[in-house]
Each structure stands twice: as structure tokens, then as C-alpha cells.
User: Which sequence fits this backbone?
């Protein structure tokens, strides 16, 4: 596994381990002082600062382009990159170029994007997911009932019955559209209020115009009404958005899962021998910490006292436990199997191995491959082109036929059938899903374009002799007499040592 890690590094890939997902919870702020921003930022070697922001209302390629552009225009901002899968913005800025911190949050809020500084992982429920599920359920219930009424109309109901069913359908559609459609309406209004457009603007216009035209036809005893179409459209759009949100949650586990491997704090040994549990952010370089058996190494360090075996699979991919003694170098993420170790911290939490791994995964999802850049550019131009096209279609049909009703119906169809959400999301989601699948198999993606380069690879050369392993020990031969096998299996089943785990899992075969 270690040689595989080095061999794939040339293609932009590295090795990682499995971890459970964590959820980033934002800290609500409408603005920030210099101290608040610096406290929430990471200082880089080149003198710049890196700040992580949560932008939960960003959901399409157009939003990404808008956010990156408005932040990039701020004084002192070196770069801004949006990760759509986690709805996170990484901003690199230089304080020396400005008298105060860049107004990152205020600028995004003024542009119609709710923005927050990221805090520590939290396990609270996702309110956005619940809102989407409830809205989808309401739209689905209304769509099913309106469709039942529409079947009778399509089957040739007499004018009186048709008018009654249209009225009932209107009563069902109005609350469903206003309740479930608010997902799109609020997003569109925020964009328009900030003087920009997004993909929800044409969707909202199409929904409102279709509903208004159907109400007009119903009040004027028209033969056709499209309440079933407008509610069903909302339902399917919400289904797609809900599935997309769930997909992002799963994909986000590849980015945030490594945080679960980092303990919340460390036992710091004072000069007088006392012990105090401190958050990792409060542990300084040079402090001495205690790593007990069964604990993961919280910070990079050097062993001062104690001996034991460490499971380094999460770091190097090696299946065999590694013995350590005074003078051995440890990195965060290693699992202490036995022995109590005193370790002198050599790297802060922000610069530890696991923190670098998390940043590497974030860079992989934020990196844009050639196809992803193409999709983002097309999605950014969508809204003005489609609005202009719909207006031209309406004008053309109206001038040709003089029938505003027919011209409006065709223009609405143009707005609805050209929804580009799949174009703006398909390529990024493929890249994110691929990163997650690779991560599940122990490979961390460092650069999104590595997937494109990997498709052209026809030869892989490993720079280490020996046998490539699966990362897990397996029993190949049992040389234990039958009367003692049960005793050995019982002992192995109660140990967390890699060799014991292998005997317990495969020794009985």
C-alpha cells in the first residue's frame, strides 16, 4: 500500500483510510472583525491567510461563478474557490494589502448569499434536507390528486364537469405552488435583489406564468389548464434537488470524514507532572502529551518515553504494526495499539498530517478539470441567453399570429424545457462521486484533473520492490493443533492488534 501510494502520487492520487462522515456547522455571523476573521483563518507560509466560509444557498454553477467573482474583486483577496459539494468557500487573502480584514461575509450577504464562518464539526440535523423533503412531499401529494382530476378532463368530461375539476385543481395547486415553490422563489428573489440572475430565476418565472395562465383560462372557462403540469414540474425539480442534496452529503464524507480520526483534544503533561485535557487548538508546539493504548495520535510529534506498536495503515497503508520507542517520529492519525507514550508535539493542529489530508481532499474537489470548467462557463451564460430566447419566441409568435395566449404558452415552454441544472451539476457531481469512491478504497484524490490524466495511463510503475498488499493481514496457513485452536481464537477475538484481528477473522477458516 505504501508503494502504491507513491506510485499513484504522480497521477495526482494519494492513499488514505476509511473514516466516518462529519458535518460542518456554520457559526451565524453577519459580519466579522479583524480578530474574528484571523481567529477563524489559517496562516500560510507565504504570509497569506486562508478562511473557510459556509454558503448554504449556493447550489449551481452560476452561483459558484458569482461568488468567486465578487470575492475576487475585494481588496486584499488573492483567490476565492467554491466547493459546491460542501457549499464551502475557501478564500485566500493578504492582510498587508488592506487596512482591515476583507468584508467577506458582508459582501456575500449583500449579493444575496447567506454566508457564515465555519466552526467545529457538529452532529445536528440538517435543516435544509428536512425543508426539501417536506416541500417535495407536499408537491407530490398535490400533483397526484390534481392528476386524478385531470384524467377525467382528458377523458372527455362535459364542460360543467371540466370547469369544476379545474377549480378544484386550482384550489389544490395554489397552496402547493406557494409552499413547495418557495424553494425556487426565495432563491430567485435573492438573486434579483442583488442585481444578478441564477438558474432559479427562469424556473420561477416559468412556474408563475404557467400558474397565472391556468388561473386565467379557468376563470374564462377555457378548455385547458396546466395545474397538473406546474405542480408536477415543481415535484420533479424538488426530487432532483433533494437527491442532489443527499448525494452531496454522501460525497462530503470523503472530504470531512478524516476529521473523525482526529481526537477532540489531548492530555497535556505539565512541567510538574500534572495532566490537563486541552482542545487541540490550545496545544502548542513543544508541549508534552500522553497517548494511551487504544488512542489515535492527535498531533505530530516525537516519542520521549514509552514503547509500543502502532497501526499506521491510515498514514502509510502498511498492514503490519510498527514498533516505536523513544526518538521515533509520530504523525497524527496513527493508532496506538499498546503501551503508553509520552510525545513532544512538533506541529500545531493546523499543520498536522490529518489537517493536511483534509485540505488535500478539499483541494481535490475544488480543483476543476477541463470538462468541469466548460460546464461552469456554459451554466454562467445560461440565464441571459434563455431569457432573451424566451422573449424572442414570444415576440415572434405574437407578431406572426397576433395571439398573445399562444405566444405566451410557447415562451413558457421554452423557459421550462431548457432548465440547465443537469449541465451545471452533472460534471462536478461525477468528479465528487469519483473522489468518494476512490476514498472508500483507500485512495485520496488530490487534483480533480487527475481523473482525466488517469484515463490516459496505460502503464503503472511502482518504485518499491516486494509484494503489493491489500492493507489487511490474512491468515494463509494455520499451524496450531486442533485442541488449542479454540483458545487462540478466543484470545485473538478480545484484542485490537492487527495480527489478532486477522486471526479472529480468518483463523477459523
Assistant:
Amino acid at each position: 500500500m505504501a508503494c502504491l501510494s507513491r506510485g499513484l502520487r504522480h497521477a495526482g492520487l494519494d492513499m488514505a483510510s476509511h473514516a466516518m462522515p462529519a458535518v460542518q456547522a456554520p457559526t451565524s455571523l453577519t459580519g466579522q472583525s479583524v480578530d474574528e476573521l484571523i481567529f477563524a483563518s489559517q496562516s500560510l507560509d507565504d504570509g497569506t491567510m486562508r478562511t473557510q466560509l459556509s454558503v448554504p444557498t449556493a447550489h449551481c454553477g452560476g452561483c459558484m461563478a458569482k461568488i468567486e467573482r465578487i470575492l475576487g474583486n475585494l481588496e486584499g483577496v488573492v483567490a476565492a474557490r467554491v466547493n459546491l459539494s460542501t457549499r464551502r468557500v475557501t478564500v485566500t487573502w493578504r492582510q498587508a494589502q488592506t487596512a482591515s480584514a476583507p468584508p467577506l461575509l458582508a459582501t456575500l450577504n449583500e449579493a444575496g448569499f447567506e454566508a457564515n464562518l465555519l466552526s467545529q464539526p457538529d452532529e445536528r440535523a440538517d435543516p435544509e434536507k428536512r425543508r426539501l423533503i417536506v416541500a417535495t412531499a407536499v408537491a407530490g401529494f398535490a400533483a397526484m390528486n390534481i392528476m386524478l382530476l385531470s384524467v377525467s378532463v382528458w377523458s372527455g368530461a362535459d364542460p360543467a364537469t371540466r370547469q369544476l375539476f379545474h377549480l378544484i385543481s386550482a384550489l389544490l395547486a395554489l397552496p402547493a405552488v406557494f409552499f413547495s415553490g418557495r424553494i425556487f422563489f426565495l432563491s430567485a428573489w435573492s438573486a434579483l435583489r442583488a442585481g444578478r440572475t441564477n438558474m432559479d430565476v427562469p424556473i420561477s418565472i416559468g412556474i408563475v406564468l404557467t400558474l397565472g395562465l391556468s388561473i386565467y383560462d379557468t376563470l374564462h372557462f377555457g378548455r385547458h389548464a396546466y395545474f397538473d403540469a406546474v405542480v408536477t414540474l415543481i415535484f420533479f425539480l424538488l426530487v432532483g434537488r433533494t437527491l442532489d442534496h443527499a448525494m452531496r452529503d454522501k460525497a462530503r464524507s470523503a472530504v470531512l470524514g478524516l476529521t473523525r480520526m482526529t481526537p477532540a483534544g489531548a492530555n497535556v503533561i505539565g512541567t510538574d507532572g500534572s495532566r490537563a485535557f486541552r482542545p487541540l487548538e490550545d496545544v502548542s508546539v513543544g508541549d508534552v502529551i500522553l497517548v494511551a493504548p487504544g488512542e489515535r495520535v492527535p498531533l505530530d510529534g516525537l516519542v520521549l518515553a514509552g514503547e509500543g506498536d502502532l497501526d499506521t495503515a491510515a498514514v502509510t497503508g502498511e498492514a503490519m504494526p510498527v514498533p516505536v520507542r523513544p526518538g521515533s517520529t509520530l504523525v497524527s492519525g496513527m493508532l496506538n495499539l499498546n503501551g503508553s507514550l509520552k510525545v513532544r508535539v512538533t506541529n500545531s493542529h493546523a499543520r498536522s498530517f490529518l489537517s493536511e489530508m483534509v485540505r488535500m481532499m478539499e483541494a481535490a474537489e475544488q480543483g476543476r478539470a477541463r470538462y468541469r470548467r466548460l460546464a461552469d462557463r456554459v451554466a454562467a451564460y445560461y440565464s441571459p441567453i434563455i431569457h432573451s430566447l424566451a422573449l424572442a419566441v414570444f415576440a415572434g409568435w405574437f407578431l406572426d399570429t397576433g395571439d398573445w395566449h399562444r405566444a405566451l404558452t410557447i415562451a413558457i415552454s421554452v423557459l421550462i424545457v431548457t432548465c440547465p441544472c443537469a449541465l451545471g451539476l452533472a460534471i462536478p457531481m461525477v468528479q465528487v462521486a469519483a473522489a468518494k469512491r476512490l476514498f472508500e478504497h483507500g485512495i485520496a484524490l488530490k487534483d480533480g484533473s487527475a481523473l482525466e490524466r488517469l484515463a490516459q495511463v496505460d502503464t503503472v510503475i511502482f518504485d518499491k520492490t516486494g509484494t503489493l498488499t491489500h492493507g489487511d493481514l490474512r491468515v494463509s496457513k494455520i499451524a496450531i493443533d486442533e485442541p488449542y485452536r479454540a483458545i487462540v481464537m478466543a484470545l485473538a477475538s478480545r484484542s485490537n492488534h492487527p495480527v489478532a484481528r486477522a486471526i479472529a477473522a480468518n483463523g477459523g477458516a
About this structure: The radius of gyration is 29 Å. The chain is about 50% helix and 15% strand. Residues 1-32, 120-124 have pLDDT under 50 and may be disordered. Residues 370-401 form the longest helix (32 residues).
